[in-house]
Amino acid sequence: MTRVCQLTDDRKYYLCMEPVDMRKQFQGLQGIVNEEFGRFLTQDEAFIFIGKTRKTAKVSCIVRVIDNSDTERLHRVMVMGKKAYLF
Hints:
Blueprint: E1 12-15, H1 26-37, E2 45-50, E3 57-66, E4 72-80, E5 83-86
Parallel strand pairs: 1-2
Antiparallel strand pairs: 2-3, 3-4, 4-5
């Protein structure tokens, strides 16, 4: 899972300047991306959200994952702390 969380030069990063309720899941954060940035999440972009207390952050992005059968799939990913969640 560490490869999923790496920051790379081939991705554009957007920081949401307003504090975000960290109880929001992927769909809630996608709504912020749509409303505040006027964008949809694509494979070459990542959006960073900071909590109200500024102690937590979430990153939403899309990654390409190749499973054991060499099948390539795109997954929506939300990273919070050291945990990454695939959707």
